[in-house]
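# step 3/5: fold
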Amino acid sequence: MTPPSPTPAPLPPDLVPLSKLPDFDPRAVPVAGIDGHLPPVAAAALAPASIRARFAAPPAWEPEVWAEKRFTDRQPAHASVLVPIVMRQQPTVLLTERTTHLSTHSGQVAFPGGKRDPDDRDAAHTALREAQEEIGLDPARVEVVGHMPTYTTGTRFIVTPVVALVDPGHALRINPDEVADAFEVPLAFLMNPAHHHRHVFEAGGVVREWFSMPYMDGRTERYIWGATAGMLRNLYRFLSA
């Protein structure tokens, strides 16, 4: 007989989502440190063939960020996101900005993805289905090359990042109910720790830490932080191992 799962410890009464804190703005939290002392991933390692080879024969490595402090007693749920690397001459990562009316992570920069459906075959199926639903990305234009270790969010989603190479000739069709915008950020920018900012924030006696990777897209700041930045940090650790 399988032993019952241990009951999680009760949540501290003051532990709430950062987005629920009055007037909270992640951009206003001071930068506690920048990891400019770490080397960027070499340009050759960011080429599609190198990324395929890295997932085909992974090195020994450990992810840096596993989970966020939980702030809900809901049952854990499995989810997947697509980490879409667009195979341009200089590879980019395709990201989305969520609409402001969504119940979780509204207005934030995110990978396409969502909760696993009962009919999904595996994590890759979930990620590809969600990407097609959210931004109209045709699965025929996507080559899945591997998975990263799971990342558990504060909302208790156990997220599998599915890394894929995307044909640069793809066309998007954004679902305005879920996505406000889609854009690309150079992979080299994201894989350079000089752009990885560390933040420490205390509220109600609870200390939380996260990464941010602010990117200027013309005159628009794309503020990548939280779970998305954490998963990108793990991708950096994987590609640089």
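# step 4/5: annotate
The two ends are 40 Å apart (CA to CA).
# step 5/5: archive (pending)
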